[in-house]
Design a protein that fits this description.
The chain is an alpha+beta fold. The protein contains 5 helices and 6 strands; from the N terminus they run H-E-E-E-E-H-H-E-E-H-H. The chain has one domain: Dipeptide-binding Protein, Domain 1 (Dipeptide-binding Protein, domain 1). The strands form 2 sheets. The chain has a 4-stranded antiparallel beta sheet. A hairpin with a 2-residue loop joins strand 1 (47-50) and strand 2.
Length: 179
């Protein structure tokens, strides 16, 4: 089924002063909910809460967990592009995870592998039943995606200033990612 392009304009009002760091998923601090207002409005994640589902695929079309509970593999949606035309790939996922705040999540993950352009594998040090809760919900900003090539080109300050947007499915987020 073909998705229709979003129309119109969304206005977003907050009752707080917006910190520039809130525009960058890599700066989101676990335990502080306020920056997630901006992430939900401007970016998208591999997996995140959606209406009626506390943990739903977004930029990932699916994920699986190995029987030994040590490996999580995500299949990415193909054909997605960032605001500047760069394709969304597994390299963006690896880059975003490495930048994410939150030592507990970083300590539990042994490695993140870009298996191919549309598959990402997370290997844990030991089984951890809370991995998806920490990765795929608002408990951390680790699954929110930053465009690697664009970020490396403009740097952290340029990214916050221009706020590169990655969003995937219709109706879930910022709407600057073309399918």
């Amino acid at each position: 089924m073909a998705q229709t392009k979003p129309e119109g304009e969304m206005k977003f009002a907050l009752y707080v002063t917006i910190a520039p760091a809130w525009f960058d998923p890599g700066e989101a601090q676990p335990g502080f909910f306020t920056p997630f207002w901006m992430l939900v409005a401007l970016h998208d994640a591999l997996v995140r809460p959606l209406p009626g589902n506390g943990m739903a695929p977004a930029l990932a079309e699916s994920w699986s967990e190995s029987p030994d509970k040590l490996t999580y593999e995500f299949k990415l949606r193909q054909g997605l592009k960032f605001h500047n035309g760069d394709p969304f790939t597994s390299e963006d996922v690896v880059f975003s995870f490495k930048r994410a705040k939150g030592t507990q999540l970083q300590e539990k993950v042994k490695e993140v592998i870009a298996v191919d352009p549309y598959t990402v594998r997370f290997v844990l040090n030991e089984p951890w039943p809370d991995f998806m809760t920490m990765y795929g919900t608002l408990a951390s900003g680790a699954s929110w995606i930053t465009p690697k090539k664009y970020f490396e080109k403009v740097g952290a300050d340029g990214f916050k200033q221009h706020c590169a947007v990655a969003s995937g499915r219709s109706g879930t987020s910022g709407r600057r990612l073309d399918e």
